[in-house]
## 1
Amino acid sequence: MKMSLNAFFRSAAAAGLCIAALAWTAAAGAQSLIDAAKKEGKVVIYGSLETGIMEAIEKVFTKKYGIPIDYFRASSNKTLDRVLTEARVNRTVSDVVVTNSGPMQLLKKDKIFARYVSPEAARYPDEMKDPDALLSPIYRMVIVGILYNTKLVKPGEEPKSLEDLLTPRWKGKWVMPDPSRHFTTGVWVRNLEQLYGKDWLGMAKKLADAKPILAESFIPSAQKITSGEALAGITYLKYVYIMGKDGAPLDYVRLPKMLADSHQIGIQAKAPHPNAARLFEDFFISREGQEIMAREGEFVTAKGVYPPIKGADKIKAIQMHELDRKEYKKWAGEFRKMFVSR
């Protein structure tokens, strides 16, 4: 079928008008959200994201939109407990929750979150998205690795693997969060199956037999390595940069594979400032937000964006399988017998 030149130009012009109309509609919608968010005055966030990283996000977000952030930072466990406690007494304070996917899935099952599809979510592959749109796409992978104190461990004497921590040289000299109390560490221990197959439980028992120093969570674990209370330990790899820029003598073991914890953001169904919450999510998972987090040491999921950590682009991260509440309770009891009660 042939089209005359005039008809072609009319068709092209019509298509151009449609695209322009869609762009105008999107811009108008975005401005409407910004205006509504500004009227609400602030956004309140609960999460486990490190305070320094949230401050970097807030600096740009508040400058751009004039909306301050009230941030309550706690471990994933305490964030989960605080959100659930407020929900039970019907006194929701926070607008946004941002932590690792395990607690977020538990909160999702308790109907804590409202459905929201951010326009920024279109940039993410389908496998990163929550099928119910109650959670944001996975925006970062927090890698769990072995860190060590470079002042106390001589070059060449650092552990080269998890198995090295089982040797007499390292017994009682390394730290990890208590897997019976710290949700993410419990998930990490259970996910050793992805590295050791059917022998994972035996490996977990060997780790317990090595008498690690037990900490509350990953930050105290890294702090004990930095202070010299422990020579090495299991914690988030990103602390090499986050704490290192403040002088902490930390480096990480170059393992062939490392387990990683996925993180998401959700908007409370009863958020006091719902428009500010939506605007924050849009910014947070945008390319701009991802680049801010990467500069602060985070392993974000944006393609080609890496933290300033040597060898970051070569790390092979394996996403951990999450545990539901029943599974975690079961394994927390088993890990208590292994790591605490012996």
Note: The CA atoms of residues 136 and 332 lie 28 Å apart.
## 2
Amino acid sequence: MFPLKAYLTAVVAVLFLAACSETPNSPSVIQGNTMGTTYSVRYYDDIGVSSDELKQEVDILLVEVNRQMSTYQGRSEISQFNQQNAPYEQKISAEFADVVFLSQQLYEMTGGYFDVTVGPLVNLWGFGPDGRPVNPPSEQEVQAALEKTGMDAIKLDKLTLSLSKSAHRYVDLSAIAKGFGVDLVAQLLEAKGAHNYLVEIGGEIRVSGMKPSQQEWKLAVETPETDAALGARSVQKILNLTDAGMATSGDYRNFFEVDGTRYSHTIDPFTGMPSAHSLGSVTVIADTCARADAIATAMLVMGTEKALALAKEHNIAAYFIVRTDNGFQEQYSEAWKTRFN
């Protein structure tokens, strides 16, 4: 499994869709558990297999993603890589290599803010498999963990499917693997002839085509209220979307407080500290869910000003909910405005 990714969530979107399902043209639906959360698939096409048969295939596919990339499984490919001392080289699966390759590209594009080697810091702050510490780590502990991070020590050979490290590194793909899982399920549906579908894992979403009424998929973005960690949810914005991946990253579900100080799970790879700014959530729309997933995470870490600059430079459709003294303020990238105007 993966940690419950609290930088959700458009999972409200699925609840909203369920409440608004059409009859008699209701979609076929399958649901299940994966990566420490849940998944949902809705489709309107006749794909030649029953929903039960499709669910079996989806479950097998997602179990394989976990076998390759879950840090919560001690014998997964990624755990085997993390457990070995450097220098070390390991053969990996093609899907694992694809995710590492995309992670390397996005590391460069975000100026280092999307860094899958921050695992030692994630674990140090208690957001990894080992659970929460009694007290926040000391400055010395943070600096020691920082020295064990950095993509420069990770090398990928896609031709030989080999992943190597020249220094101690702990790779954590939880900020991109759910989105990648969504894309794999979407590819499975398309291979079976489906063109009108929604796939969701833990709030990360990919949609294609239309409903029978020729309407786009109606999705919702959650308000980043801190009491959402206790189960309270409210909708900030409703979107109509098709043929895209969408992911929301927020600081309002996975955090802890010590002596009145709030520590979020989003770790700044440059300081080693949990991000501390007014940006409550970021929603990104991209061609794939994996890409949206990773970019939303990076933008949440870097904060509104840098995220808007990144969105402008790379024409990224991004939507920001910022906390102010007067409540929440919405900001949009130019690409987002263009898409929804």
Note: Residues 74-165 form a domain with the T-fold fold (CATH 1.10.3980.10).
## 3
Amino acid sequence: MIEIDGTVGGGQLLRTALSLSAVTETPFRMTNVRGSRPNPGLKPQHVTAVDIVATICAADVAGARLDSSTLTFRPGTVRFDPMAVDIGTAGSITLLFDTVLPIAMAADEPFRMTAGGGTDVKWAPTVAYFRRVKLPLLTRCGLDADGDCTKTGFYPAGGGEAILRTTPGALSPLEIERRGELDRVEIRSKAATELADRMVAERQAERARKRLADAGCAPEIRRVEYVSTRSLGSSLLLSAVYDRSLAGFDSVGERGRTSEEVADDAFRRFEEFHAGGAPVDEYMADQVMTVLALVGGTVRIPTVTAHVRTNLAVIEKFGSDMSLTRRDDGTILLEASPHPAVRT
């Protein structure tokens, strides 16, 4: 059984371990789960992720309860049935999808899951980012998946709903080494219906458009919408479309933060990324590692964050030969061979 110390990592270590455990049929025990966080242990979204993966692979589990600091997970055989889950809080739906997606893409049967919780919340990709950036990038390794956001859920009430669907297909190594020239930056802005009189969604989109235009980019406002939600909130996604890659920069509104500040935050992160040479953004670098560990390939990322380094340590425990190589331009090559447990 693999032993993992979760002291220096957050929920990503747990999600990575769950995904790889199910696909490789390797049991693990994690101690000090989220040990360095102000609120350590398993939270509702983490317990939900454990329960979902345990159901998918008929796992024998110990410690899957709120605030638990130790989890033992012994996977069985993967089998899919349509699933519907509710995190019960504004916990991120996309992080739940990130956990099951590597399992679904490695399987020989279709998968469908409806999840309730937060769709546009801090510290996690929005559903728009998941749909418009992550899933399109992963088509390069043969992923056939799509997602829908049927209800938007902001913090603190949540109440959102999204659907993930995958279809089995032939997988191949993931190759994302160059991004090419910038073609355009797509703008998608959303806010709760109650904020329409303040034109929050329009202000976010227009501020982003102006900042991008002033920077000499090619902004395109693709969607400005108001949605019924349980909590007031807003979100913005900038999708940078390059000749050979995609990158995303989302930002979430909250009390005390103006629409213009939301747009400025997303634009600042795009501007920093665009000045470099990597084809994927910093947050995608962390998210794509589990997929790369399974299908193999090469992905060039902006930098080695603490998340990347701790995630790499877990991935290596499950038999991946993933390596990091620093290039002359400061970017990093992530390279891995296909995992023996995955058919490519």
Note: The domain at 182-274 is CATH 3.30.360.20 (Dihydrodipicolinate Reductase; domain 2).
## 4
Amino acid sequence: MTATNAISPVILQPIAKGRAWGGTTFAHWKKFAAPKPGELAIGESWEVADLPESIANGCTLVAAGAGTGKTLHELIDLDTPGWMGRARLTAQGRFPLLVKFLDAAEHLSVQVHPDETYAAANASAHLKTESWFVLAAKSGATIWRGVKEHVTKQEFETRLRAGASILDLLVEVRVQAGDCIDLPSGLCHALGEGITVAEIQTPSDTTFRVFDWNRNDPSRLLHLDQAMQCIQFGKTQRLEHLPIRNAATAPAVQTRSMRTTLLSRTDHYKIERIEAMTATTLEVITHQRPVCWLVLGGSVSVDGETPVSAHAWQTLLFPAISEGCTAKLSLGATFLRITLPDPMDRFIA
């Protein structure tokens, strides 16, 4: 493979995904044109994606920066050490994150994603741990996260098989803008209507639906057998160890020009919210791993051999060798910084 100079970040072209529950936010953001009559509303914007060819339209293209027009997979393949540094690709040789925006005008299905045990036993399934950062939520908006601790697997499955409602068996939580919610694999959950989120997850599109709000859509099948092999119950869900953090109230590190708030740290990624308190510059630090900046407000411009500029609702992806680039942030510029773990961390006592 021929190496390429990958010092500067790239801006990726988002992929629009029509969904039965999609809304109008993306058209308002001017990310995509409004759907035509008869088309599904756009429910997802895939910002960083490198899924296998078996997933239709599952790999983002470079919209600006070095390698414009290439897929993310092609770009990384040209210089894997430069892009990944100390981080690792997946076992399938893919980028280890899938980053999206979701716009829920209606409830999403109650669902679960495979855990490590199920994924290891089923080659077509892939582990999926995810986190939601709430960008906007209508008054009283709720999510469902986890099964109530006293509910047994038998009780839950009996309700499912009978076609009875399971909503009263789930933990319902009110959410607001700024909340960050972790959803480990195996945790039953649903995103409620009237909520727009940024979703950071491991690179899997495997979802098992257990309830779809009686949509009776033949293209949206339920997966009760698979789901019951994955859903966690009782204390194994560890809900007490999964607090919801809000960006406005969580502890932050603040200087005269910058405020950094840690929102989530999982085995697969870390999410921080960074806000420029003044127009300022920020040296890019990668720690020899690729870094994703999901811009939520203001503007960010980055120098380097191929300078790029990003505005609200655009995504910058920095290769590991971007260390030392300088970003210029407008007053109020805000972004989520998403970083990968260092594989050596597991060996450090």
Note: The chain is about 10% helix and 35% strand.
